[in-house]
Design a protein that fits this description.
Blueprint: H1 2-7, H2 10-13, H3 16-51, H4 54-72, H5 98-108, H6 120-131, H7 134-147, H8 149-157, H9 162-173, H10 176-196
Length: about 200
Amino acid sequence: MFSMMDFITPVVHGGRARWRLALIAYGACAATSAAAFGALLGMGGRVLRQQLPIEHGAAALPVIVLVATVHELGVVRIPWPQRRWQVPSSWRFIAPRWIPSALYGLLLGPGILTYIPVATYYALVAMAIFITDPGCATAVFVLFAVAQLVPLYLVGRGAETFDAAAARITTWSSHRVLLHRVNGALLAAVAVYLIWC
């Protein structure tokens, strides 16, 4: 994601107005592809629910969340399924500049087509499946896609040069362990809720 993050900055787009257009293009396309993916997960969950008793889903979700929790807390490393593929860097040369941003959004919106840095994503997928409602699962994944805009905005907001944007990304990367621990704590709270409520 860092290749895409440093691309969607005002300095690359030649000013704040074009950068905002790139953010909007990314966000709209990410939300669209994430909505489609969420709807598919919800429909798959509905079909699964017809095949299995509801108790299986009620038991499986806390287990998945607990496994994600121990992974995020660094207790056990779980080899989660994912692609190590990154978005094509050649897209950076497509003009106008908002088009690559839109393409990045289409690919990264659902989260499944590239590197996944946190196990929370897998808990989110499981929740979308076990919700068994395509509309709710769609909403969950649209929120996921919109949340991807936050780091893009924060990196580009005050970055007047490419080096400043790259420095922000490097600084955030240095806090990766803390991110995983906070993620793990939040997942633990979700697991407790799912087990006792």
